[in-house]
Here is the input.
Amino acid sequence: MSHVDAERLHTSVLVAPASEKRRVRRQRSQAAAKLQAEQQQSERKAARAKYAAELAERRAATYLPAAGELGTAQLRSSGKLRLPRHQDTSATLAGAYPFLAEGGLGPDGVFVGQDLYSGGSFVYDPWVLYARGLITAPNLVLAGIVGSGKSSLAKSLYTRSLPFGRRVYVPGDPKGEHTAVAEAVGGKAIVLGHGLSTRLNPLDEGYRPTGMSEESWSATVSARRRDLIGALAETVLTRPLTPLEHTSIDTALTEVVRSNDVPILPMVVDHILAPTSEADLDGRLAEDGRLVGHALRRLVSGDLAGLFDGPSTVTFDPTLPMISLDLSRVTENSTLMSVLMTCSSAWMESALLDQNGGQRWCIYDEAWRLMSHPALLRRMDAHWRLARHYGIANMLIFHKLTDLENVGDQGSAMRALANSLLANAETRIIYRQESDQLGATAKALGLTGTEQKLLPGLGVGQGLWRIKDRSFVCQHQLHPGELELFDTTTRMTGDSRKFTIREP
Here is the structure.
């Protein structure tokens, strides 16, 4: 009988009717007491069995003696360790706390160097961090004074990403630093400048993304050509185009594409300056496009001639591991360099916007030169905003953050675009900065007082990494082959040896 039944029996005894015989009531009470005693005895037996099992388990366990293991296993010396007593302030002793260093970003990614606080390896990969939810924007900003090692870091990041299936695009290399790297990794460097046979036709169709229909591709090419010619004209005129000038360009481009399989810029210029009677219905089209026509004429027969006035002599192969546009021969002409950058950006844009093109680095070196041109700045801003959608990681390289203050006037649209590039980059790497730049740098990046004090004392290859809300101080480490390949001091040191990659 269960404990509940016993309770019911005992209750029934207490409420038995008075007319029932005393003997029967006594028997019923005795039976209830017996059942209750049996239940209590059963519970005590179960408790004793549980205790005995736990006791047996504890006795079967093996524990080390309080004094430790005996013999050689105790790992002790015969002498006693005696340390002198040390007394110091709490502010100083706080440095002895064992958990001051960051836990790191994990082992997945490209090896960069050593975390100077924790002593461990430091790895970084914007695509890995984005997949793990640690960052929401894969773009990167790298700033450092001349000789601090920022160029070597940029080259290491993208070359070490190549074995992971990434590709590298450098739409403008003003100093030609990336040419040797592109050739060493099996890529291609396109060198443009006066006196060379290289031609770049800004009206080429470019690379066609996979899976795009004929109708969509035709519309994309037409829109890109209109935007590109408009951007080139704005660059030369150094002002926005008027609606009449846009109409003049669009009409001339339509006429040229209709009658030529491979349109080139001189044909567009001729149609702008001398439109056909079918296109010029009111007889004013030539006058409306006169200024923009003469501006574009500089690219085909003026001081900028020889680079855009014929079919392209080079092809853009997006399957190569790296492509770089070398502008080192035209750095003395800011207008020509801006025009070349505008053309190359449009040239690579079709490959960058290919959703099946894989993950790609897009490197903007000497950014202070590029951001001074509105057309280039707008294209850069578009690429940065679409980075996540197309799997692109943009890297913006310049000397100091105050370079952004030289872009446009205070409160202008250009200044706002330049600042948005910084806002859309959650990885900021700051190499050594001069003392007069600390305030502006700390304000732009929201650095703490401790982080601000670190910047002037950073050595070559040492940088403060701000990844969203986390900070690291990393020492970049180079392989001997990388050190020789990435060297940018050959003219100063007089070493004219060719760059080669050493085998590990």
About this structure: The CA atoms of residues 263 and 274 lie 17 Å apart. The longest helix spans residues 22-60.
